[in-house]
Structures are given as C-alpha cells and as structure tokens.
Specification:
The relative contact order is 0.12. Helix content is 54%, strand content 10%. It has 237 residues and is mostly helical. It folds into 2 domains: 64 residues, Fe,Mn superoxide dismutase (SOD) domain (Helix Hairpins, Orthogonal Bundle); 102 residues, minor pseudopilin epsh fold (3-Layer(bab) Sandwich), CATH 3.55.40.20. It starts with a helix and ends with a helix. The structure holds fe (ii) ion. Fe (ii) ion binds next to helix 2.
C-alpha cells in the first residue's frame, strides 16, 4: 500500500507535464498559429492620452484613439483574415482596393487605420514650430507661412462632411488637398506629409461645431513639423 502510494507520487510530475503540454497546445489552437500577426497593426500612441491638452482633451483621445481607431484596425483585420490581401501591407491594400466597389469595406477600414496612424504622428505636445528647409519650401510653395495656414484652414472648413485635410508633395512643391471619408493621398499616388482629421469625432467634444478653431489650434500648438520634415526627407533620392 505504502509502495503504491510512493509510485503514484513519483508519477505525478509526469502526469502534470502531460496536462501542461495539452493545456499549452489548446491555448495555441485557441489563439491561432504560433507567431501569427494581424495584417494591420495598431500603432501605439507616441504620447500620453492627456499630453495634447488643452487643445485636444484626454476624453477626446480616449474615444478617438481607443474606440474609433481601434475599431478601424479590428474591423480591417476581421475583413482581411484568410483573404487575398492578408499578406499585403496597408499601403498595398489601399492601392489595390481603391475605387473597387467589391472591396469598399476593406478599403474604408484599412485606409482609416492608415490615416489615423499617420495623424497621431503628425501631432506632439508643444508643436507648431517650423524651420529649416521645410520652412523655405512652405514659403516657396505658398508665398508665406501665414498664407499656407490660411489656405489649410480654408480647405479644412470647405471639406463637406467627414474627411481629412492634407499637406502633400506634388512634384517639387507642396500642395494642400482634402479627401472625403476614408480616402487618402496614397490611393492617388501622392506623398502625404501632414494631415488633420476633420471627422467630427476628432474635435466635437472639445470644440463642438468649431472645426476651424480645432484646426487652427493644431497648426499653432500641436503640429509636429519635425515629423513632416522627416517625411519630406524620405522622398529625397
Ligand atoms: Fe478620426
């Protein structure tokens, strides 16, 4: 009796190991393949949720980043799972699905995920200061920084409904454009350098209907011109 008990105790670690292996295998089956990555990854916010106060509140950021952006990333990955675009980059998917009615849902969610990831990087606390080559190019393209700012504000105000206002590189010069809903310059072969999200969810809690005030505050206090300069430099051969 005593010997049997000792044998059982000696066998216990082996049994526990077996259960452990089965448990781990079930965990991996439940989570998909080991090492499997979603097609569209959620970019971490490059600053704290409350870092852009008082111009963008942490309440807005929690809803905008945590709900809207996360929603686009999750939906994009649901739509892409097991499909023809699963192994493509977001930029490739945008180009391949733009203007194709059968891929509207994929385009909208992937483009919105891309636009938002880009937008977070266009902002920083204590931003708004531009200098160097970029300042020279803005003056060359628009006449002065004030003219650029007024044109950007006018474009943002004139975008009917939801969309984005962009600074893009068009040949040797800079250009301001707007896109509606999820549309994005990379779907049109343009190089985006800077953007402001003008969907109401970007500003309504802080500014209600005052879109121009929101865009003005972004340009004066939050625009990360170092990021824009880096985007511009990446186009140099
Ligand atoms: Fe947004």
């Amino acid at each position: 009796m005593k010997k049997q008990l000792i044998k059982r105790v000696q066998r216990l670690p082996k049994g526990m190991c077996l259960f452990g292996v089965i448990g781990l295998a079930l965990l991996f089956i439940g989570c998909g393949k080991v090492g499997e990555k979603p097609s569209i990854t959620q970019e971490p916010l490059p600053y704290k949720m409350d870092a852009l106060k008082p111009y963008i509140s942490d309440q807005t950021m929690r809803v905008h980043y945590g709900k809207h952006y996360t929603g686009y990333v999750d939906k994009a990955n649901q739509l892409l799972k097991g499909g023809a675009f699963e192994d493509k980059t977001a930029e490739e998917i945008i180009v391949l699905t733009a203007g194709k009615e059968e891929h509207t849902a994929i385009f909208n969610n992937v483009a919105q995920a891309w636009n938002h990831a880009f937008f977070w990087k266009c902002l920083k606390p204590d931003g708004g200061k531009v200098d160097g080559k970029l300042a020279d190019l803005i003056i060359k393209s628009f006449g002065s920084f004030d003219t650029f700012k007024q044109n950007f504000l006018e474009a943002a105000k004139s975008q009917f409904g939801s969309g984005w206002t962009w600074l893009v590189l068009d040949g040797e010069k800079l250009k301001i454009i707007t896109t509606a809903n999820a549309d994005t310059p990379i779907a049109h072969g343009l190089k985006p350098l800077f953007t402001v999200d003008v969907w109401e969810h970007a500003y309504y809690l802080d500014y209600q209907n005052r879109r121009a005030d929101f865009v003005n505050d972004v340009l004066d206090h939050l625009a990360d011109w170092d990021f824009v300069a880096f985007q511009l430099k990446s186009t140099e051969k």
